[in-house]
Predict the structure.
Amino acid sequence: MYGFKVENGKISLSTRGSGLAGLYELTDCQMVEVAGRGVLGGVKVALLCDEEGLLKADPKNNLTACDLLAEITNSAPAYLLGGGLAGTCSLVSDDDLRGLSADEVARITKALDNGGYPYGNSTFNALGIEVNVIRAY
C-alpha cells in the first residue's frame, strides 16, 4: 500500500503500513486528523495532518498541503482564511483511510503533474514490476 507524504514543500510517494500505526508513520505524528476529503485524479482521497501540529513549539505552516487541500475540496487555501496546516501531512484513500493502489497512485501522480505540484522522484512496485518515476523540478 502507498500514500503520499506532503512535507518541506514537496509531495513524495511512500509505502504505507496498515492501520493507525501506518497513518501515524506516514504523517509523522501520534494523532492524525482528517483535514479534508475530496477527489484528485478521479480518486476519492483524504488529506491527513497532525491533529496537534499548530500547538507545537514553532509550528511550520505546510503551504503545499494547504494548496493541495484547496485543490481536492475546490476551496480557497486555508492560509488565505487565517488558518493552515502544520508539519507533515499525508494523502491516502478516502475509503476507510486505506493505502493507495498502484493504479490510484498513477492517476493521482498524473493529476499532481497537471497541477504543477512539486512532486519528487519515487519508486513503487506494480504487479511485481518496479516502477521508477523521475520528475524534473
Q: What stands out?
A: The mean pLDDT is 83. Residues 90 and 133 are 19 Å apart (CA to CA).
